[in-house]
Specification:
By secondary structure, the protein is α/β, with parallel strands linked by helices. 61% of the residues lie in helices and 10% in strands. It has a domain of 321 residues: ABC transporter type 1, transmembrane domain (ABC transporter transmembrane region fold, Up-down Bundle), CATH 1.20.1560. The protein is built from 19 helices and twelve strands. Strands 8-9-10-5-11-12 form a six-stranded mixed β-sheet. Strands 4-3-6-7 form a four-stranded antiparallel β-sheet, with no helix packed on it. Strand 11 and strand 12 form a beta hairpin.
Protein backbone atom coordinates (compact mmCIF):
# COMPACT_ATOMS: atom_id res chain seq x y z
CA UNK A 1 0.00 0.00 0.00
CA UNK A 2 1.04 3.58 -0.57
CA UNK A 3 3.04 5.14 2.26
CA UNK A 4 1.16 7.50 4.51
CA UNK A 5 0.98 8.76 8.06
CA UNK A 6 3.69 8.94 10.66
CA UNK A 7 4.51 5.26 10.40
CA UNK A 8 5.60 5.72 6.79
CA UNK A 9 7.38 9.04 6.96
CA UNK A 10 4.76 10.74 4.79
CA UNK A 11 2.83 13.73 6.04
CA UNK A 12 -0.23 15.34 4.63
CA UNK A 13 -1.78 17.85 7.01
CA UNK A 14 -1.14 21.36 8.34
CA UNK A 15 2.03 21.84 10.36
CA UNK A 16 3.57 18.60 9.13
CA UNK A 17 5.75 17.53 6.27
CA UNK A 18 4.09 16.97 2.93
CA UNK A 19 6.32 14.71 0.90
CA UNK A 20 9.71 16.29 1.59
CA UNK A 21 8.28 19.72 2.40
CA UNK A 22 7.25 21.33 5.67
CA UNK A 23 3.75 22.76 5.77
CA UNK A 24 3.09 25.41 8.41
CA UNK A 25 -0.38 25.82 9.89
CA UNK A 26 -2.29 28.53 8.05
CA UNK A 27 -3.15 31.58 10.13
CA UNK A 28 -6.51 33.15 9.35
CA UNK A 29 -6.79 36.91 9.72
CA UNK A 30 -10.02 38.65 10.72
CA UNK A 31 -9.96 40.63 7.46
CA UNK A 32 -9.76 37.47 5.42
CA UNK A 33 -12.57 35.89 7.44
CA UNK A 34 -14.84 38.90 6.93
CA UNK A 35 -14.02 39.10 3.24
CA UNK A 36 -14.74 35.40 2.88
CA UNK A 37 -18.14 35.69 4.58
CA UNK A 38 -19.00 38.80 2.55
CA UNK A 39 -18.28 37.01 -0.72
CA UNK A 40 -20.69 34.19 0.09
CA UNK A 41 -23.42 36.22 1.81
CA UNK A 42 -23.26 39.34 -0.39
CA UNK A 43 -25.64 37.99 -3.07
CA UNK A 44 -28.20 37.28 -0.33
CA UNK A 45 -28.10 40.79 1.20
CA UNK A 46 -31.90 41.17 1.26
CA UNK A 47 -32.30 38.08 3.44
CA UNK A 48 -29.37 39.19 5.56
CA UNK A 49 -31.07 42.57 6.07
CA UNK A 50 -34.42 41.01 7.02
CA UNK A 51 -32.70 38.55 9.35
CA UNK A 52 -30.71 41.37 10.98
CA UNK A 53 -33.84 43.44 11.54
CA UNK A 54 -35.54 40.41 13.07
CA UNK A 55 -32.53 39.94 15.38
CA UNK A 56 -32.62 43.60 16.45
CA UNK A 57 -36.36 43.57 17.12
CA UNK A 58 -36.19 40.22 18.92
CA UNK A 59 -33.35 41.48 21.14
CA UNK A 60 -35.16 44.77 21.84
CA UNK A 61 -38.41 43.06 22.87
CA UNK A 62 -36.45 40.80 25.26
CA UNK A 63 -35.63 43.89 27.34
CA UNK A 64 -39.30 44.41 28.29
CA UNK A 65 -40.17 41.39 30.53
CA UNK A 66 -37.73 42.10 33.42
CA UNK A 67 -38.93 45.74 33.56
CA UNK A 68 -42.61 44.74 33.48
CA UNK A 69 -42.05 42.06 36.14
CA UNK A 70 -39.91 44.10 38.53
CA UNK A 71 -40.78 47.76 38.16
CA UNK A 72 -44.43 47.49 37.21
CA UNK A 73 -45.82 44.34 38.80
CA UNK A 74 -43.65 44.07 41.96
CA UNK A 75 -43.49 47.81 42.79
CA UNK A 76 -46.72 49.22 41.37
CA UNK A 77 -49.03 46.27 41.91
CA UNK A 78 -47.64 44.34 44.92
CA UNK A 79 -45.84 47.06 46.89
CA UNK A 80 -48.22 49.96 46.16
CA UNK A 81 -51.26 47.62 46.00
CA UNK A 82 -52.60 48.89 42.66
CA UNK A 83 -54.18 45.54 41.83
CA UNK A 84 -56.39 47.07 39.14
CA UNK A 85 -53.25 47.47 36.99
CA UNK A 86 -52.29 43.79 37.13
CA UNK A 87 -54.41 42.62 34.16
CA UNK A 88 -52.94 45.29 31.87
CA UNK A 89 -49.38 44.48 32.97
CA UNK A 90 -49.97 40.75 32.48
CA UNK A 91 -51.30 41.50 28.99
CA UNK A 92 -48.12 43.52 28.26
CA UNK A 93 -45.94 40.70 29.61
CA UNK A 94 -47.68 38.05 27.46
CA UNK A 95 -47.47 40.33 24.43
CA UNK A 96 -43.75 40.91 24.98
CA UNK A 97 -43.09 37.17 25.23
CA UNK A 98 -45.21 36.45 22.13
CA UNK A 99 -43.66 39.18 19.97
CA UNK A 100 -40.17 38.21 21.15
CA UNK A 101 -40.72 34.59 20.17
CA UNK A 102 -42.32 35.62 16.86
CA UNK A 103 -39.34 37.73 15.85
CA UNK A 104 -37.08 34.99 17.19
CA UNK A 105 -38.74 32.43 14.91
CA UNK A 106 -38.30 34.73 11.89
CA UNK A 107 -34.70 35.34 12.90
CA UNK A 108 -33.85 31.66 13.30
CA UNK A 109 -35.61 30.64 10.08
CA UNK A 110 -33.86 33.20 7.90
CA UNK A 111 -30.44 32.98 9.54
CA UNK A 112 -30.36 29.18 9.63
CA UNK A 113 -31.47 28.85 6.00
CA UNK A 114 -28.82 31.41 5.05
CA UNK A 115 -26.28 29.38 7.00
CA UNK A 116 -27.24 26.21 5.17
CA UNK A 117 -27.00 28.05 1.84
CA UNK A 118 -23.55 29.29 2.85
CA UNK A 119 -22.35 25.79 3.67
CA UNK A 120 -23.86 24.40 0.45
CA UNK A 121 -21.98 26.98 -1.63
CA UNK A 122 -18.79 26.44 0.37
CA UNK A 123 -18.89 22.69 -0.17
CA UNK A 124 -19.67 23.18 -3.87
CA UNK A 125 -16.89 25.73 -4.42
CA UNK A 126 -14.40 23.60 -2.49
CA UNK A 127 -15.22 20.58 -4.65
CA UNK A 128 -15.06 22.73 -7.79
CA UNK A 129 -11.63 24.00 -6.74
CA UNK A 130 -10.45 20.46 -6.09
CA UNK A 131 -11.58 19.47 -9.58
CA UNK A 132 -9.49 22.32 -11.03
CA UNK A 133 -6.30 21.31 -9.25
CA UNK A 134 -3.65 19.48 -11.23
CA UNK A 135 -2.80 15.79 -10.89
CA UNK A 136 0.37 16.68 -8.98
CA UNK A 137 -1.73 17.91 -6.05
CA UNK A 138 -3.56 14.58 -5.67
CA UNK A 139 -0.37 12.58 -6.17
CA UNK A 140 1.22 14.24 -3.13
CA UNK A 141 -1.80 14.16 -0.79
CA UNK A 142 -3.55 11.33 0.98
CA UNK A 143 -7.06 10.74 -0.33
CA UNK A 144 -8.49 10.26 3.15
CA UNK A 145 -7.19 13.64 4.31
CA UNK A 146 -8.70 15.42 1.29
CA UNK A 147 -12.01 13.70 2.00
CA UNK A 148 -11.80 14.74 5.65
CA UNK A 149 -11.42 18.38 4.65
CA UNK A 150 -14.37 18.20 2.28
CA UNK A 151 -16.65 16.46 4.78
CA UNK A 152 -15.60 16.77 8.45
CA UNK A 153 -14.02 20.21 8.21
CA UNK A 154 -16.92 21.64 6.22
CA UNK A 155 -19.31 20.14 8.80
CA UNK A 156 -17.36 21.90 11.55
CA UNK A 157 -17.73 25.21 9.70
CA UNK A 158 -21.43 24.40 9.28
CA UNK A 159 -21.85 24.24 13.07
CA UNK A 160 -20.39 27.72 13.37
CA UNK A 161 -22.20 29.35 10.45
CA UNK A 162 -25.64 27.75 10.80
CA UNK A 163 -25.91 27.86 14.58
CA UNK A 164 -23.11 30.10 15.80
CA UNK A 165 -23.60 33.22 13.67
CA UNK A 166 -27.24 33.61 14.64
CA UNK A 167 -26.42 33.20 18.32
CA UNK A 168 -23.52 35.66 18.13
CA UNK A 169 -25.57 38.46 16.59
CA UNK A 170 -28.56 37.87 18.86
CA UNK A 171 -26.47 37.52 22.02
CA UNK A 172 -24.31 40.58 21.33
CA UNK A 173 -27.37 42.78 20.77
CA UNK A 174 -29.08 41.39 23.90
CA UNK A 175 -25.96 41.98 25.99
CA UNK A 176 -25.49 45.51 24.65
CA UNK A 177 -29.14 46.39 25.23
CA UNK A 178 -29.17 44.90 28.72
CA UNK A 179 -26.02 46.76 29.81
CA UNK A 180 -27.43 50.03 28.44
CA UNK A 181 -30.70 49.62 30.35
CA UNK A 182 -28.89 48.63 33.57
CA UNK A 183 -26.57 51.62 33.44
CA UNK A 184 -29.45 54.02 32.73
CA UNK A 185 -31.67 52.58 35.47
CA UNK A 186 -29.05 52.40 38.26
CA UNK A 187 -25.37 52.49 37.33
CA UNK A 188 -24.08 51.63 40.83
CA UNK A 189 -26.32 48.59 41.08
CA UNK A 190 -25.29 47.68 37.52
CA UNK A 191 -21.60 47.74 38.49
CA UNK A 192 -22.41 45.55 41.50
CA UNK A 193 -23.86 42.97 39.14
CA UNK A 194 -21.22 43.25 36.40
CA UNK A 195 -18.09 43.15 38.56
CA UNK A 196 -17.12 39.58 37.41
CA UNK A 197 -17.02 40.72 33.77
CA UNK A 198 -13.27 41.67 33.60
CA UNK A 199 -12.29 38.32 35.13
CA UNK A 200 -14.59 36.63 32.67
CA UNK A 201 -12.98 38.35 29.63
CA UNK A 202 -9.40 37.61 30.75
CA UNK A 203 -10.33 33.96 31.42
CA UNK A 204 -11.84 33.66 27.96
CA UNK A 205 -8.69 34.97 26.27
CA UNK A 206 -6.53 32.50 28.22
CA UNK A 207 -8.91 29.67 27.36
CA UNK A 208 -8.77 30.52 23.64
CA UNK A 209 -4.97 30.59 23.67
CA UNK A 210 -4.77 27.01 24.94
CA UNK A 211 -7.79 25.45 23.25
CA UNK A 212 -7.16 26.54 19.64
CA UNK A 213 -3.98 24.44 19.08
CA UNK A 214 -5.77 21.45 20.60
CA UNK A 215 -8.67 21.79 18.19
CA UNK A 216 -6.24 22.10 15.29
CA UNK A 217 -4.58 18.86 16.33
CA UNK A 218 -7.98 17.19 16.66
CA UNK A 219 -8.80 18.06 13.03
CA UNK A 220 -5.39 16.85 11.86
CA UNK A 221 -5.67 13.57 13.76
CA UNK A 222 -9.14 13.04 12.31
CA UNK A 223 -7.60 13.49 8.85
CA UNK A 224 -5.03 10.80 9.76
CA UNK A 225 -7.82 8.43 10.80
CA UNK A 226 -9.73 9.00 7.56
CA UNK A 227 -6.57 8.45 5.54
CA UNK A 228 -5.82 5.18 7.34
CA UNK A 229 -9.42 4.04 7.00
CA UNK A 230 -9.71 4.90 3.30
CA UNK A 231 -6.48 3.13 2.36
CA UNK A 232 -7.24 0.12 4.52
CA UNK A 233 -10.64 -0.38 2.89
CA UNK A 234 -9.25 0.26 -0.60
CA UNK A 235 -6.49 -2.30 0.02
CA UNK A 236 -8.57 -4.83 1.94
CA UNK A 237 -7.65 -7.64 -0.50
CA UNK A 238 -3.94 -7.10 0.22
CA UNK A 239 -4.61 -6.90 3.96
CA UNK A 240 -6.42 -10.23 3.95
CA UNK A 241 -4.03 -11.87 1.51
CA UNK A 242 -1.13 -11.26 3.91
CA UNK A 243 -3.26 -11.81 7.04
CA UNK A 244 -2.41 -8.34 8.31
CA UNK A 245 -5.73 -7.63 10.05
CA UNK A 246 -4.12 -7.45 13.51
CA UNK A 247 -1.28 -5.28 12.20
CA UNK A 248 -3.74 -2.84 10.59
CA UNK A 249 -5.88 -2.84 13.74
CA UNK A 250 -2.82 -1.89 15.79
CA UNK A 251 -1.97 0.94 13.37
CA UNK A 252 -5.54 2.20 13.33
CA UNK A 253 -5.58 2.01 17.12
CA UNK A 254 -2.52 4.29 17.26
CA UNK A 255 -4.18 6.99 15.13
CA UNK A 256 -7.42 6.64 17.09
CA UNK A 257 -5.55 6.93 20.40
CA UNK A 258 -3.87 10.15 19.23
CA UNK A 259 -7.31 11.51 18.34
CA UNK A 260 -8.66 10.35 21.71
CA UNK A 261 -5.84 12.06 23.64
CA UNK A 262 -6.34 15.35 21.78
CA UNK A 263 -10.08 15.24 22.52
CA UNK A 264 -9.45 14.44 26.19
CA UNK A 265 -7.18 17.49 26.49
CA UNK A 266 -9.92 19.63 24.98
CA UNK A 267 -12.57 18.12 27.25
CA UNK A 268 -10.41 18.71 30.33
CA UNK A 269 -9.99 22.38 29.43
CA UNK A 270 -13.64 23.21 28.80
CA UNK A 271 -14.97 21.09 31.70
CA UNK A 272 -12.66 23.13 33.94
CA UNK A 273 -13.40 26.47 32.30
CA UNK A 274 -17.20 26.36 32.03
CA UNK A 275 -17.93 25.56 35.72
CA UNK A 276 -15.58 28.41 36.67
CA UNK A 277 -17.51 30.75 34.38
CA UNK A 278 -20.79 29.48 35.85
CA UNK A 279 -19.55 30.33 39.34
CA UNK A 280 -18.57 33.83 38.20
CA UNK A 281 -22.00 34.51 36.72
CA UNK A 282 -23.62 33.38 39.98
CA UNK A 283 -21.53 35.90 41.87
CA UNK A 284 -23.14 38.72 39.86
CA UNK A 285 -26.49 37.99 41.53
CA UNK A 286 -24.75 37.92 44.90
CA UNK A 287 -23.33 41.37 44.16
CA UNK A 288 -26.75 42.83 43.35
CA UNK A 289 -28.35 41.33 46.48
CA UNK A 290 -25.48 42.44 48.73
CA UNK A 291 -25.39 45.99 47.44
CA UNK A 292 -29.12 46.44 46.79
CA UNK A 293 -30.73 44.65 49.71
CA UNK A 294 -28.09 45.21 52.38
CA UNK A 295 -28.53 48.98 52.83
CA UNK A 296 -32.35 48.53 52.59
CA UNK A 297 -32.28 46.31 55.65
CA UNK A 298 -30.35 49.05 57.50
CA UNK A 299 -33.03 51.59 56.56
CA UNK A 300 -30.89 53.29 53.91
CA UNK A 301 -32.65 52.26 50.69
CA UNK A 302 -30.55 51.89 47.53
CA UNK A 303 -33.20 50.23 45.35
CA UNK A 304 -36.77 49.08 45.71
CA UNK A 305 -37.70 45.41 45.82
CA UNK A 306 -39.04 45.66 42.30
CA UNK A 307 -35.79 47.20 41.05
CA UNK A 308 -33.78 44.39 42.62
CA UNK A 309 -36.06 41.81 41.00
CA UNK A 310 -35.73 43.70 37.71
CA UNK A 311 -31.92 43.80 37.99
CA UNK A 312 -31.76 40.08 38.77
CA UNK A 313 -33.91 39.43 35.71
CA UNK A 314 -31.67 41.59 33.53
CA UNK A 315 -28.53 39.93 34.89
CA UNK A 316 -29.98 36.53 34.06
CA UNK A 317 -30.80 37.89 30.62
CA UNK A 318 -27.25 39.26 30.40
CA UNK A 319 -25.32 36.16 31.45
CA UNK A 320 -27.43 33.67 29.52
CA UNK A 321 -26.32 35.08 26.13
CA UNK A 322 -22.82 35.45 27.58
CA UNK A 323 -22.87 31.71 28.28
CA UNK A 324 -24.13 31.14 24.73
CA UNK A 325 -21.27 33.25 23.41
CA UNK A 326 -18.79 31.10 25.31
CA UNK A 327 -20.22 27.96 23.75
CA UNK A 328 -20.27 29.62 20.33
CA UNK A 329 -16.68 30.69 20.92
CA UNK A 330 -15.81 27.07 21.58
CA UNK A 331 -17.53 26.14 18.29
CA UNK A 332 -15.72 29.04 16.61
CA UNK A 333 -12.33 27.72 17.71
CA UNK A 334 -13.16 24.29 16.35
CA UNK A 335 -14.32 25.84 13.09
CA UNK A 336 -11.23 28.02 12.88
CA UNK A 337 -9.02 24.94 12.91
CA UNK A 338 -11.15 23.49 10.13
CA UNK A 339 -11.15 26.73 8.14
CA UNK A 340 -7.35 26.72 8.16
CA UNK A 341 -7.38 23.30 6.52
CA UNK A 342 -10.07 24.38 4.03
CA UNK A 343 -8.16 27.56 3.14
CA UNK A 344 -5.08 25.44 2.47
CA UNK A 345 -7.02 23.83 -0.38
CA UNK A 346 -8.34 27.16 -1.67
CA UNK A 347 -4.80 28.57 -1.57
CA UNK A 348 -3.57 25.78 -3.82
CA UNK A 349 -3.44 26.81 -7.46
CA UNK A 350 -3.41 24.47 -10.48
CA UNK A 351 -0.02 23.87 -12.06
CA UNK A 352 -1.77 23.59 -15.41
CA UNK A 353 -4.13 26.40 -16.39
CA UNK A 354 -5.55 27.71 -19.64
CA UNK A 355 -3.64 30.62 -21.13
CA UNK A 356 -5.69 33.83 -21.56
CA UNK A 357 -5.50 33.45 -25.34
CA UNK A 358 -6.16 29.67 -25.33
CA UNK A 359 -8.28 28.45 -28.26
CA UNK A 360 -10.97 25.84 -28.81
CA UNK A 361 -10.34 23.02 -31.29
CA UNK A 362 -13.62 21.82 -32.74
CA UNK A 363 -12.01 19.10 -34.87
CA UNK A 364 -8.51 17.74 -35.22
CA UNK A 365 -6.68 15.45 -37.64
CA UNK A 366 -4.58 13.86 -34.88
CA UNK A 367 -1.02 14.87 -35.70
CA UNK A 368 1.15 14.92 -32.56
CA UNK A 369 4.58 16.55 -32.49
CA UNK A 370 6.70 16.15 -29.34
CA UNK A 371 9.80 18.28 -29.81
CA UNK A 372 12.97 18.27 -27.60
CA UNK A 373 10.95 17.69 -24.42
CA UNK A 374 12.69 17.70 -21.04
CA UNK A 375 10.53 16.92 -18.02
CA UNK A 376 10.69 16.34 -14.28
CA UNK A 377 8.11 16.03 -11.53
CA UNK A 378 8.03 18.59 -8.71
CA UNK A 379 10.04 16.35 -6.44
CA UNK A 380 12.48 14.16 -8.28
CA UNK A 381 15.13 14.01 -10.97
CA UNK A 382 14.87 14.59 -14.71
CA UNK A 383 12.57 11.94 -16.22
CA UNK A 384 12.77 12.87 -19.92
CA UNK A 385 15.76 14.43 -21.68
CA UNK A 386 15.34 16.16 -25.05
CA UNK A 387 12.82 13.60 -26.32
CA UNK A 388 11.28 14.07 -29.77
CA UNK A 389 8.48 11.89 -31.20
CA UNK A 390 6.28 12.59 -34.22
CA UNK A 391 2.99 10.86 -35.02
CA UNK A 392 1.16 11.47 -38.27
CA UNK A 393 -2.67 11.42 -38.28
CA UNK A 394 -3.88 7.82 -38.05
CA UNK A 395 -0.41 6.48 -37.23
CA UNK A 396 0.26 4.01 -34.41
CA UNK A 397 3.35 4.77 -32.36
CA UNK A 398 4.56 2.21 -29.82
CA UNK A 399 6.66 3.34 -26.86
CA UNK A 400 8.76 0.55 -25.40
CA UNK A 401 11.52 0.32 -22.84
CA UNK A 402 12.31 -0.89 -19.38
CA UNK A 403 10.15 0.07 -16.38
CA UNK A 404 10.84 3.63 -15.27
CA UNK A 405 12.23 4.69 -18.64
CA UNK A 406 9.72 7.58 -18.89
CA UNK A 407 7.11 6.20 -21.31
CA UNK A 408 4.03 7.07 -19.23
CA UNK A 409 5.48 10.46 -18.35
CA UNK A 410 5.83 11.18 -22.06
CA UNK A 411 2.23 10.34 -23.01
CA UNK A 412 0.92 12.30 -20.02
CA UNK A 413 2.24 15.44 -21.69
CA UNK A 414 -0.10 15.01 -24.68
CA UNK A 415 -3.40 15.68 -22.79
CA UNK A 416 -1.41 18.24 -20.81
CA UNK A 417 -1.61 16.60 -17.41
CA UNK A 418 1.83 18.17 -16.96
CA UNK A 419 3.91 20.75 -18.81
CA UNK A 420 7.50 20.07 -19.89
CA UNK A 421 10.42 22.04 -18.48
CA UNK A 422 11.74 22.53 -21.98
CA UNK A 423 10.51 21.79 -25.46
CA UNK A 424 6.93 21.62 -26.71
CA UNK A 425 4.03 19.28 -27.41
CA UNK A 426 1.81 20.18 -30.36
CA UNK A 427 -1.44 18.76 -31.74
CA UNK A 428 -2.17 19.60 -35.38
CA UNK A 429 0.53 22.24 -35.17
CA UNK A 430 -0.94 23.97 -32.09
CA UNK A 431 1.14 24.00 -28.91
CA UNK A 432 -1.07 22.28 -26.30
CA UNK A 433 -0.40 25.22 -23.97
CA UNK A 434 -2.39 27.39 -26.42
CA UNK A 435 -5.39 25.03 -26.45
CA UNK A 436 -8.06 25.01 -23.75
CA UNK A 437 -7.62 21.91 -21.62
CA UNK A 438 -11.23 20.76 -21.92
CA UNK A 439 -11.10 21.19 -25.69
CA UNK A 440 -7.79 19.32 -25.99
CA UNK A 441 -8.85 16.42 -23.78
CA UNK A 442 -12.18 16.04 -25.57
CA UNK A 443 -10.18 14.71 -28.53
CA UNK A 444 -8.09 12.28 -26.44
CA UNK A 445 -9.01 9.03 -24.69
CA UNK A 446 -6.91 6.88 -22.39
CA UNK A 447 -7.11 3.17 -21.64
CA UNK A 448 -4.82 2.49 -18.72
CA UNK A 449 -3.19 -0.53 -17.13
CA UNK A 450 -5.18 -0.08 -13.90
CA UNK A 451 -8.74 0.37 -15.12
CA UNK A 452 -10.89 2.64 -12.98
CA UNK A 453 -14.63 2.06 -13.01
CA UNK A 454 -17.13 3.99 -10.93
CA UNK A 455 -19.52 2.48 -8.42
CA UNK A 456 -22.54 2.39 -10.72
CA UNK A 457 -24.04 0.36 -13.54
CA UNK A 458 -22.26 -1.01 -16.59
CA UNK A 459 -24.29 1.42 -18.69
CA UNK A 460 -23.29 4.44 -16.59
CA UNK A 461 -19.60 3.53 -16.81
CA UNK A 462 -19.69 3.23 -20.60
CA UNK A 463 -21.75 6.43 -20.92
CA UNK A 464 -19.03 8.31 -19.01
CA UNK A 465 -17.25 8.54 -22.37
CA UNK A 466 -20.12 10.71 -23.70
CA UNK A 467 -22.83 11.66 -21.26
CA UNK A 468 -25.46 12.44 -23.91
CA UNK A 469 -25.12 9.07 -25.68
CA UNK A 470 -28.28 7.12 -26.46
CA UNK A 471 -28.87 3.54 -25.29
CA UNK A 472 -28.29 2.35 -28.85
CA UNK A 473 -24.92 4.11 -29.05
CA UNK A 474 -23.89 2.62 -25.70
CA UNK A 475 -24.72 -0.89 -26.93
CA UNK A 476 -22.83 -0.28 -30.18
CA UNK A 477 -19.77 0.86 -28.22
CA UNK A 478 -20.00 -2.24 -26.02
CA UNK A 479 -20.24 -4.47 -29.11
CA UNK A 480 -17.18 -2.81 -30.64
CA UNK A 481 -15.32 -3.46 -27.38
CA UNK A 482 -16.46 -7.12 -27.24
CA UNK A 483 -18.18 -6.28 -23.94
CA UNK A 484 -21.79 -6.73 -25.03
CA UNK A 485 -21.62 -10.54 -24.79
CA UNK A 486 -20.76 -10.67 -21.09
CA UNK A 487 -22.90 -7.63 -20.18
CA UNK A 488 -26.13 -9.24 -21.38
CA UNK A 489 -25.31 -12.25 -19.19
CA UNK A 490 -25.15 -10.10 -16.06
CA UNK A 491 -28.18 -10.27 -13.70
CA UNK A 492 -29.63 -6.95 -14.86
CA UNK A 493 -27.60 -6.64 -18.06
CA UNK A 494 -26.59 -3.01 -18.67
CA UNK A 495 -28.30 -1.87 -15.45
CA UNK A 496 -26.24 -4.23 -13.28
CA UNK A 497 -24.38 -2.54 -10.42
CA UNK A 498 -20.71 -3.46 -10.91
CA UNK A 499 -19.48 -2.33 -7.48
CA UNK A 500 -16.73 0.03 -6.42
CA UNK A 501 -13.91 0.01 -8.99
CA UNK A 502 -15.84 -2.70 -10.86
CA UNK A 503 -15.12 -5.26 -8.15
CA UNK A 504 -17.89 -7.59 -9.45
CA UNK A 505 -16.18 -7.95 -12.84
CA UNK A 506 -13.06 -9.81 -13.92
CA UNK A 507 -9.95 -7.93 -15.03
CA UNK A 508 -10.67 -8.57 -18.70
CA UNK A 509 -14.31 -7.49 -18.35
CA UNK A 510 -13.33 -4.26 -16.62
CA UNK A 511 -10.83 -3.53 -19.37
CA UNK A 512 -13.44 -4.06 -22.09
CA UNK A 513 -15.85 -1.70 -20.28
CA UNK A 514 -13.03 0.88 -20.29
CA UNK A 515 -12.47 0.31 -24.01
CA UNK A 516 -16.21 0.70 -24.67
CA UNK A 517 -16.05 3.98 -22.77
CA UNK A 518 -13.21 5.14 -25.04
CA UNK A 519 -15.07 3.96 -28.17
CA UNK A 520 -18.09 6.02 -27.18
CA UNK A 521 -15.92 9.09 -26.61
CA UNK A 522 -14.78 8.72 -30.26
CA UNK A 523 -11.38 10.42 -29.78
CA UNK A 524 -9.00 11.26 -32.58
CA UNK A 525 -5.98 10.56 -30.36
CA UNK A 526 -5.84 7.37 -28.29
CA UNK A 527 -3.37 6.48 -25.55
CA UNK A 528 -3.06 2.84 -24.48
CA UNK A 529 -0.89 2.39 -21.41
CA UNK A 530 -0.25 -1.33 -20.77
CA UNK A 531 -3.90 -2.01 -21.59
CA UNK A 532 -3.50 -5.81 -21.63
CA UNK A 533 -0.72 -6.44 -19.13
CA UNK A 534 -2.96 -7.45 -16.20
CA UNK A 535 -5.20 -9.98 -17.95
CA UNK A 536 -4.83 -13.61 -18.94
CA UNK A 537 -4.13 -14.84 -22.47
CA UNK A 538 -7.75 -15.57 -23.35
CA UNK A 539 -8.93 -12.17 -22.14
CA UNK A 540 -5.99 -10.54 -23.90
CA UNK A 541 -7.10 -11.96 -27.24
CA UNK A 542 -10.59 -10.49 -26.82
CA UNK A 543 -9.15 -7.18 -25.66
CA UNK A 544 -6.79 -7.07 -28.63
CA UNK A 545 -9.77 -7.46 -30.96
CA UNK A 546 -11.55 -4.67 -29.11
CA UNK A 547 -8.47 -2.49 -29.33
CA UNK A 548 -8.21 -3.07 -33.07
CA UNK A 549 -11.74 -1.70 -33.45
CA UNK A 550 -10.87 1.22 -31.20
CA UNK A 551 -7.57 2.06 -32.92
CA UNK A 552 -8.94 2.08 -36.44
CA UNK A 553 -8.60 5.53 -38.05
CA UNK A 554 -7.05 7.16 -34.96
CA UNK A 555 -3.63 8.38 -33.93
CA UNK A 556 -2.53 5.89 -31.28
CA UNK A 557 0.25 5.85 -28.71
CA UNK A 558 0.77 2.38 -27.29
CA UNK A 559 2.87 1.58 -24.23
CA UNK A 560 3.51 -2.14 -23.92
CA UNK A 561 5.92 -4.47 -22.17
CA UNK A 562 4.71 -7.41 -24.26
CA UNK A 563 6.54 -6.51 -27.44
CA UNK A 564 4.64 -9.10 -29.46
CA UNK A 565 1.59 -6.80 -29.21
CA UNK A 566 3.32 -3.86 -30.96
CA UNK A 567 4.91 -5.65 -33.91
CA UNK A 568 2.43 -4.07 -36.34
CA UNK A 569 2.92 -0.50 -35.10
CA UNK A 570 3.85 2.03 -37.76
CA UNK A 571 6.68 3.25 -35.57
CA UNK A 572 8.37 1.84 -32.47
CA UNK A 573 10.19 4.30 -30.21
CA UNK A 574 12.61 2.76 -27.72
CA UNK A 575 13.18 4.86 -24.59
CA UNK A 576 16.00 4.19 -22.17
CA UNK A 577 16.85 6.40 -19.19
CA UNK A 578 14.48 9.13 -20.38
CA UNK A 579 16.03 9.34 -23.87
CA UNK A 580 15.08 7.98 -27.28
CA UNK A 581 17.72 5.43 -28.23
CA UNK A 582 16.01 3.74 -31.21
CA UNK A 583 13.16 4.52 -33.58
CA UNK A 584 11.91 2.49 -36.55
CA UNK A 585 9.44 -0.26 -37.43
CA UNK A 586 9.69 -3.80 -36.03
CA UNK A 587 11.61 -5.36 -38.94
CA UNK A 588 14.18 -2.57 -39.08
CA UNK A 589 14.80 -2.63 -35.32
CA UNK A 590 15.25 -6.42 -35.36
CA UNK A 591 17.77 -6.14 -38.21
CA UNK A 592 19.72 -3.48 -36.32
CA UNK A 593 20.09 -5.82 -33.34
CA UNK A 594 19.93 -3.07 -30.72
CA UNK A 595 18.11 -2.80 -27.41
CA UNK A 596 14.69 -3.53 -28.91
CA UNK A 597 15.94 -6.72 -30.61
CA UNK A 598 17.57 -7.81 -27.35
CA UNK A 599 14.36 -7.22 -25.34
CA UNK A 600 12.21 -8.92 -27.97
CA UNK A 601 14.44 -12.00 -28.14
CA UNK A 602 14.50 -12.28 -24.35
CA UNK A 603 10.70 -12.19 -24.18
CA UNK A 604 10.47 -14.70 -27.04
CA UNK A 605 12.80 -17.11 -25.22
CA UNK A 606 10.89 -16.72 -21.93
CA UNK A 607 7.58 -17.29 -23.72
CA UNK A 608 9.01 -20.50 -25.26
CA UNK A 609 10.12 -21.79 -21.86
CA UNK A 610 6.69 -20.97 -20.40
CA UNK A 611 4.90 -22.78 -23.24
CA UNK A 612 7.15 -25.82 -22.80
CA UNK A 613 6.39 -25.94 -19.07
CA UNK A 614 2.69 -25.71 -19.84
CA UNK A 615 2.96 -28.67 -22.25
CA UNK A 616 4.87 -30.71 -19.66
CA UNK A 617 2.23 -29.87 -17.08
CA UNK A 618 -0.56 -31.15 -19.35
CA UNK A 619 1.31 -34.39 -20.04
Amino acid sequence: MRGHGRGHGFRHVGGRTEGDEKVEPLRITDRRMLGWFARYLGPHWVKVLIGTLAVILSSAVRLAPPYITGKLIVDNVIRDQHYELLAGYIFLLVGAYFIGQLFGAVRMNIMHILGQRFVYELRLHLYEHLQRLSLSYFESRATGDIMSRLSNDVNSVEDMVVHGTDEVVSSVLTIAGTVTVLMIMHWRLALAGLWPLPIFVVSLLIFARYIRPIYRKIREDLGDINTELQENIAGIHVVKAFAREDYELERFGKWSYEYYKANVRGIWLWTTFFPFIGFLTSMSSVGVLWYGAGPSLAGNSVASAGEIVMFLGYLMQFYHPVGMLIRVYDTFNRALASLARIFQIFDEQPDIEDAPEAIELAEIKGEVQIEDVTFKYKTGEIVLKSVSVHAEPGETVALVGRSGAGKTSLVNLIPRFYDPLEGSVAVDGYDVRRIKKASLRSHIALVLQETFLFNGTAKENIAYGRLDASDEEIVQAAQAAYAHEFIIELPEQYETQIGERGVKLSGGQKQRIAIARAVLADPQILILDEATSLVDTEAEQQIQKALENLMRGRTVFVIAHRLSTVRNADKIVVIEGGEVVEEADHETLMEEGGLYAEMYQRQFDLAGIWDMNQDLGRS
